[in-house]
């Protein structure tokens, strides 16, 4: 980068330190690496510094300690130095690892080797670092997006780093000059300028006191002029103090200092306001009278400038306002961006620097909704010059992955620095929890932030007891303590309903069914559904209450199609009222209550009681097939807590059930694939029930009987 920087009073030593023949090389060194738009321009950087002849230190030239991208591969040694028994690896929760505790597991030094389960994203990060490409990562929170961005900064070369200096512009004080120098040289330049300014101020001070002494001495010799002499001395002092500020203004302001940087810069600009992201100019309340701060000293760099030659990470990219995203896009395109005021409190109305280099790699991240409010041109810029990658939520459960999970726990212990290491049975319990949180059979969750929180809670419990290692009991206690807010609310609802007898878990009731739902992502709750049939005041209709959301309303309509098909009752003369009891302020979303609604309505139409010891969840097609839903594990546990002994789930979800051991003996799980199977289990009263079920079997669809259900079970539906 090069910009005109013509300083009226360069340090006197500058012209003496470098021979004339070195000028071209010196000029080239000042310019550093320039972006392509800058090379086509006509700006130059002509700043005479007393340090220009200094060579970089040996430490600056030695980049051998930073491994290059070519040294990296996709294969990670999971357990170096630890014995692995391959004969038992398939069935062993530790994947065959022979350890006493996580202290036996070696943690890799590089972040890129610590990434678990995101192999595609990891390989893309390595490629993007090598080719300097932008990356956008979309996925659930806690899947390792920020860790991958930090890992990318470790893969970039250090030798390209630069310091950025801002100089006073004697021609226009509101347009400070910008200069880039190799990393580490900026401090030397500033020290030399400060030393030169100190010498000049010292000489000026000596001259000032000599003049004041002469004036006062003359005034003493002439008694009539003593007062005038003192006044003259004061004026001389003010003049010297005022003019000395010009010398101080010659000292440049280093806004980016990479002298001590061991790896390429990494800047996390998540949630940053415009000034913090794009740079700003501080407000100066003293704008005149010689008391103002020079404009170049008030320049503040933004994250885009600090991340020059490094990585700029912005999570939740859609939270940036559109104008900021537009400016960010300009910075990406040009590789440089001038600093000016970004708010009403700054001095940016007048001050604007020359363009400051910001040749960074952009790593944008967010959830799926991030793409909706993201500036389309900014996304196009990232996609056109980089990669887009979706972060997985789960990964297949293999012995290798279980070994990596054991290493993940060792990484969390080492990163925290205060936790006792985990015993082998504690690690096994955490891997079981990872299986359970995945919501899918033979899979492990990749939501490592929440799992890491459980590791820290368990470690804190062991540390409070002053134990050498964290045990399985500590992990079990941590699971109870670290319940989510939703789970705590769900448990509280269950207890309150027991107190007020709102929860029915025995006997038979017509038109009432115990449905199951989830709150948040990991909390189950029992949600009763009631149905009542009444004479129609006009045309017959289905009336549902409980703040149903769009998907729930559609599921009610699907249920009415089945009811109209099998029922002998003329529904045009009947109104069907459906109530979701105590659905709460959020109402009901999703269609996982479809079989619950159908069972309640059919029970009310046929006057057949529903077994209240049964709870159920499942979606329902218009042909009567029971379709898979999410969150079955949490729903089953909620039903067990409420006292139900039988739980109906979709047959496709049978492989997803991973309940805690304490609930296994409490409930019977009954998978069903058709509404007739659901009614056969849920309804009471053999003669009428048998007749109804036989009639339903003859008219409802069998679309999934030939194996389609099993294929659907391989999906990962979101919790309903």
From TrEMBL:
Example GO BP: protein catabolic process
SUPFAM superfamilies noted in UniProt: P-loop containing nucleoside triphosphate hydrolases, Ribosomal protein S5 domain 2-like
EC number: 3.4.21.-
Chain positions covered by the region annotation Disordered: 1-66
Pfam short name (any one): Mg_chelatase
Tagged with keyword Secreted: no
Subcellular location: Cell membrane
Compositionally biased residues, Basic and acidic residues: 27-47
Biased composition (Acidic residues): 1-15, 48-66
Residue ranges constituting the Lon proteolytic domain according to the UniProt record: 507-685
Cellular component per GO, a single term: plasma membrane
UniProt key word Transmembrane: yes
Record-annotated active site: 592, 635
Record domain Sigma-54 factor interaction: where: 219-385
GO molecular function: ATP binding; ATP-dependent peptidase activity; serine-type endopeptidase activity
Family: Belongs to the peptidase S16 family. Archaeal LonB subfamily.
PANTHER family: ATP DEPENDENT LON PROTEASE FAMILY MEMBER (PTHR10046)
Protein name (Swiss-Prot/TrEMBL): Archaeal Lon protease
Organism the protein comes from: Natrinema versiforme
